[in-house]
Amino acid sequence: MSGFANEVSSSPLSFWSYFMDHRSADLQLLWSHTWLSVVPVVLGLVIALPLGWLSNRFSWSYPPIMTVSGLLYTIPSIALFVLIPPLLHLDQLSELQVPIALTVYSVALLVRVVADGLGSVSEDTRQAATAIGFTPLARLLKVDLPIAVPVITAGLRVAVVSNVSIVAIAGTIGFQNLGNLFTTGYQLSSGTSPYYPPIVLGLVLCVILALALDALVILAGRGLTPWRRAARG
Amino acid sequence: MATGGPRMIGNVITWLNDPSHWRGTGTTDGIVTQLERHISYVGIALLIAMLIAVPLGLLIGHTGRGGSAVSLANAIRSIPSIGLLILLVVIISPHFHGRTQAGFIIPTEIVLMLLAVPPILAGTYAGVENVDPAVRDAAYGMGMKGGQVLLKVELPNSLPLVISGVRSAALQLIATATIASFVPLGGLGRFIYDGLAQRDFPQMIGGGVLVALLALLVDLLLAAIQRILVSPGVSGRFSKRADRRRGAAGEADSRVAAVDEAGVTV
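Output (structure tokens, whole complex):
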């Protein structure tokens, strides 16, 4: 990529022509960044749902599950990236270490959110659902979870937006994603002559990606809770 | 190809146990020096962020105005810190010559500070907002002025959420200060990036372990400070009934989680 650097002016505003010059490479970075931001959150939600349900259903399991997830969340992302391979017998710099680390984070964040969301269902609602003949499983799927959607949605928004930022950090330890644009710009900036286009392009694409994923989560949350719109309208 | 597994864990322990890695050698700085730097980058940024965010959050919560400042602070969250750091470094560092590191330290502190403001602001704002209106009315009814209500009633009552905000900010800063080592600065991230560059994986993983340990220790320390600072009347600690105590703590925690998220929602 650096070979083409001289074709583009180094002004911050020429990030667009930089993008057009390296379109296929940049789109590839954007694609892998998107993939790395979304898949761990989805996996994390799939794992967090039963755990959150468990800790809400059986109150003895709430403190240990929340303590463990709280501890996992305190481990810095870059530390988790480098700790995953020895713990899971992977090669150093394995393709899997970043998605696994991000999944761990998403689970840690979402378990509490799911438990709190399910906990926010009022006792009256539960009893009414049971009284009109819902089995426990049907009540969970058709009553408790839908009511918990707004709380879970709020947690998912935090998870995807912070993932976009954490993935960029993985770009500085050798993984292919939008973070590479920052390292490229840094390497092409020498001494007193900064080379802005890749850095600005990376920032713009990251922010757009974060906002777009955030908007998708909001839309999905609204789609799953049509009664809230009805109540408001 | 280096393989993972128990042998690597043993190598990491060996690396961490070597006294020369702690003291450093003539050419490289040891863990002690890098730890001090790491703590100073985090401490300075956290202090500045608290000086900005706590008064601002109290003011916004007290007056009930300026909620848009909170959502603005949260919009900042979507900016990747590593990208902002590198942008600021290429802008600022050419203005410093010679042996000074100011060209790298100033951008690092700006990025860390921007990262710390949103959680502290959201925590403070929500803390004041969540104060029981009856308590606030009682304070006014006793003849307190607005400022007195803020400092003597709203602040002590919101302290658990304020400190929770500081705790989550501190954790984020400890994690993010590692990227200061990507631009050539010290800190514990040095071992991660040097280990990566030299393919010295025990060093890289050892650095990761140290960052994680620091984060856990600081979180425990702040939890202890929270216990000391928060009035037992607010935390409900005087209650002898363990289940009630746990319930209160759980409720406060979940409110923080809600706050963290509310930041983005509001």
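Chain B has one domain: 34-265.
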